[in-house]
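Re-run requested by the PI after the first attempt was lost when the workstation crashed. Everything re-entered from the original request form. Ligand of interest: guanosine-5'-monophosphate.
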Amino acid sequence: MSDAVLRHAPIIVVAGPSGVGKGTVIAWAREHMPRAWLSVSATTRAPRPGERDGVNYHYLGSEQFDAMVRDGAFLEWAEYAGNRYGTPLQPLLDHAAAGQPVLLEIELQGARQVRRRLPDARLVFIKPPSWEELVRRLTGRGTESPELVERRLATAREEMACEPEFDVTIVNDDVSRAGQALVDLLESASTK
Ligand code: 5GP
């Protein structure tokens, strides 16, 4: 039933390696298209300084996350760098039913699940201008341990190789240009 509601909804899935600036591009797009709704994921990861519960993520304990998986309350979920992340289904249904274009910012395994479950969703890959630039951005954030950065770099290397699986690639060389490209996609998806 829920999948039938979502099948023709304008859903744009944004993925790309950690550190590529997905969040910044999405923030630009939302500012210029307030009608678009960004799904707030659930995660078992601890909040980073400045992050807020219910805004950046819904921060859940492992048991709470398990219960949501068991109840079928996620559109998709995946494990990434030692934590779990999932897209809550109900809010997405509500916003899609209200006719809003929906944005998901998720990692690759989740994007694949959405593709299988909702073949009409558009998958957008955000790519850095170069690998060197991505390394610079990932190591420059300074909020994580060297081990964690190394782990994220290894994952990013694998993620970069998955670009051909996506419908569209946006190079994040300039935030307003990349953000506008995302707005254009949201516009065209919602007038389909
Ligand atoms: P971070 O811990 O840096 O906020 O996120 C790590 C990765 O998890 C990012 O690539 C982010 O896009 C992804 N992510 C965030 N929410 C979800 C979700 O609901 N599902 C999936 N599959 N990945 C997510």
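Saved to the shared folder this time. The chain has a mean pLDDT of 92.
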